[in-house]
């Protein structure tokens, strides 16, 4: 539910008063931008990936197998770190830009992954048998 203009002005005044009274606390409560943090992690992982490629190629050229294997492991680890960091990035939609907290409660539309509908009756084997019967009746199996 959006705030009215009067409520928004009051909230801004309260924030300014808090910032003037205790700037350290206000900065800590404001928090950091999650998108920037995760983007920084992904860039760091990309740089480490490049270091892993250099290690791998150096190990291949100098025929030091341990260095090549270590480079490959570094590449895999950094790629995993980048992918897991990037998947956690919150969306940059209007609600996030406006400072609203997204609703991810169990009943919210954003939380639901598949539509709620009638489930398939019967087990997997029964459905396969029904499909087989349908094919036989239509003459596809001959």
TrEMBL record:
Alphabetically ordered keywords of this record: Membrane, Transmembrane, Transmembrane helix
InterPro entries: DUF3040 (IPR021401)
Residue ranges, annotated region (Disordered): 97-142
Record's keyword annotation contains Chloroplast: no
Biased composition (Basic and acidic residues): 126-142
Transmembrane segments: 42-58, 64-83
Name of the protein this chain belongs to: DUF3040 domain-containing protein
Organism: Jiangella aurantiaca
């Amino acid at each position: 539910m959006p705030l009215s203009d009067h409520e928004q002005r009051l909230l801004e005044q309260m924030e300014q008063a808090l910032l003037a009274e205790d700037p350290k606390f206000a900065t800590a409560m404001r928090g950091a931008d999650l998108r920037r943090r995760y983007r920084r992690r992904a860039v760091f992982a990309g740089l480490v990936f490049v270091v892993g490629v250099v290690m791998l190629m150096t190990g291949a050229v100098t025929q030091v197998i341990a260095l090549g294997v270590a480079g490959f492991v570094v590449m895999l680890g950094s790629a995993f770190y980048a992918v897991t960091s990037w998947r956690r990035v919150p969306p940059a939609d209007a609600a996030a830009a406006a400072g609203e907290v997204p609703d991810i409660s169990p009943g919210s539309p954003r939380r639901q992954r598949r539509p709620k509908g009638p489930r398939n009756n019967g087990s997997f084997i029964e459905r396969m048998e029904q499909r087989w019967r349908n094919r036989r009746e239509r003459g596809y199996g001959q």
